[in-house]
Amino acid sequence: MEYRQLGASGLKVPVLGFGTATFGGGNEFFKAWGSTREEEATRMVNLCMDAGVNLFDTADVYSDGLSEEILGKAIGGRRDKVLISTKGTFPFGEGANNQGSSRHHLTKQVEGSLKRLNTDYIDIYHMHGFDGNTPVEETLRTLDDLVQSGKIRYIAASNFSGWHLMKSLAVSEKYGWSRYVAHQVYYSLANREYEWELMPLATDQKVGGIIWSPLAAGWLGGKYRRDKPKPKDTRIAKGGSPVPEAVVKEEVLYNTIDAMDEVAAETGKTVAQVALNWLLQRPTVSSIIIGARNEEQLKQNLDSVGWNLSTEQVKKLDAASEVPPVYPYWHQRQNTSLNPLPDFYK
After folding, report:
1. Per-residue confidence (pLDDT) for residue 133, from 0 to 100
2. Which of 34, 54, 166, 338 has its CA 20 to 30 A from that of 20?
3. Pair 120, 68: CB distance under 8 Å
4. Which region among 29-33, 58-62, 242-246, 268-272 has the lowest average model confidence (pLDDT)?
5. How far is Cα 152 from Cα 144, in angstroms, rounded to an integer?
6. Whole-number mean pLDDT of the chain?
């Protein structure tokens, strides 16, 4: 398993991490993802660790904390051999202060996550989303205090806009507080908006990309084909997709899948493995969070590493999946001497 530096930190993470949103199935939304219980979860953790995948990603809101509980039990006595990533910010529990990145809510959520995970520290703690109501200074001072106390080792953002992340980094630098070393983002062949601003920012500020939903919630998993009925047994059909159907442009999607089919035939890999391997060759990507409803899916996803697409195959996928950028990015591209494009656009 290849390991990469996580942003400007000294931490090395595997290029594949395992996402545990399928653990628990504690409500209707997450049942559409999966309902993995402790016994199978333990087998999946074992499969990951045997393959060199020691990064496990969860969140307090995944099945209302049940995902964290199951992950904590599945890890068992191997805490020192794994990296745990979890998240706070989104609504959890009752009351007026049940959400956000305030000192009140974050302190409560970190304590809850530690208890559910049966650990005394979290390796990477993410703000699951940006809180526009709480001063950035309050959030980052709270996180720095939690780092100083040893309850968190590294902090990260998730689903931030460019200005959210840049302002946060500037505040951390101003006060000498812990800074976000990673940004957990949605990025896939189905939607490449990450490349427009967040990737250049990550390159400039040395923030590692941790990719969620690399198969676009299943659109790129091999079940969808042009001119064929959409399957009814998928997460998308059951209303459990974190990627809104409206943002997936079907003509571009099917052009991309056609190209993926060609590359899969050339490499002897599945279309899902092709999609994951493409991501591993993008700038700023430190780790890709793979999920699986069952052990067979997990084994297939683990086989997306140990080989590389050719330059020509990458270009074919790039061309098929590219869409015109929105303003101001199309305007900036009119003068690439001032705003150089990444190599993959040339």
Report:
1. 97
2. 166
3. no
4. 29-33
5. 9
6. 92
User: For strand 83-88 and strand 122-127, is the pairing parallel, antiparallel, or unpaired?
Assistant: parallel
**Torsions phi, psi for 11 (to 5 deg):** -85, 135
**Is residue 62 annotated as a catalytic residue, yes or no?**
yes
| Lookup: tokens for 104 | 């009140």
Q: Which two tokens stand for residue 205?
A: 């500020």
The Cα diameter of the chain in Å comes to 56
d(CA 66, CA 23): 7
pLDDT bucket at 238, cuts 50 / 70 / 90: low
What residue has token string 């270009």? 315
Burial of 265 (0-12, 13-18, 19+ CB in 10 A): exposed
Whole-number pLDDT of residue 239: 65
Q: By the 8 A CB rule, do 86 and 114 touch? A: no
Structure tokens at 330: 């199309």
Spatial distance between the Cα atoms of 322 and 314, rounded to a whole number of angstroms: 12
Q: What is the pLDDT of residues 262-309, one digit of tens each?
A: 999 999 999 999 999 999 999 999 999 998 878 888 999 999 999 999
3-state secondary structure the chain: CCEEECCCCCCEEECEEEECCCECCCCHHHHCCCCECHHHHHHHHHHHHHCCCCEEECCCCHHHHHHHHHHHHHHCCCHHHCEEEEEECCCCCCCCCCCCCCHHHHHHHHHHHHHHHCCCCEEEEEECCCCCCCCHHHHHHHHHHHHHCCCEEEEEEECCCHHHHHHHHHHHHHHCCCCEEEEEEECECCECHHHCCHHHHHHHHCCEEEEECCCHHHCCCCCCCCCCCCCCCCCCCCCCCCCCHHHCCHHHHHHHHHHHHHHHHHHCCCHHHHHHHHHHCCCCEEEEEECCCCHHHHHHHHCCCCCCCCHHHHHHHHHHHCCCCCCCHHHHCCCCCCCCCCHHHC
Angstrom distances, CA of residue 272 to CA of 230, 304, 330: 17, 8, 30
